Amino acid sequence: MKFGWFFLFYLLHLGFCVLAAVAPPIVFKGKSLTGILSAIDVIDDHTVIGILYFIGLGLFCLEILVGIWVIQQVGMYFRGSGKAAEMKREAARGTLRAAI
């Protein structure tokens, strides 16, 4: 179950990072996230702040790439450690017990 919770919350985290990297004005009305859409909108009026927004965008993209790498590494560890097969056997036993 610990791996399941990790995958669930880490995928939510990656989803937020993608949302923050895009920063659509539909979800966040102001300029609260440093995404590509906010950076393009701000760079016209304030060049220095626009550059900082692009730096934030780069960091969010880097976080997405590192996050994908981490979830791949944890997935390989999960499958290689035998936890996946153990969880399948435990689920089958639980189903059998519930049926009896």
Automatic annotation (TrEMBL):
GO terms for cellular component: plasma membrane; recycling endosome membrane; trans-Golgi network membrane; transport vesicle membrane. Pfam families: SCAMP. Keywords: Cell membrane, Cytoplasmic vesicle, Membrane, Transmembrane, Transmembrane helix, Transport. The chain crosses the membrane at residues 7-28, 48-71. It comes from the Eukaryota. It is found in: Cell membrane; Cytoplasmic vesicle, Secretory vesicle membrane. GO terms for biological process: protein transport. It is a multi-pass membrane protein. Its main location: membrane. The keyword Cell membrane applies. Belongs to the SCAMP family. Probably involved in membrane trafficking. This is Secretory carrier-associated membrane protein. It comes from Lotus japonicus.
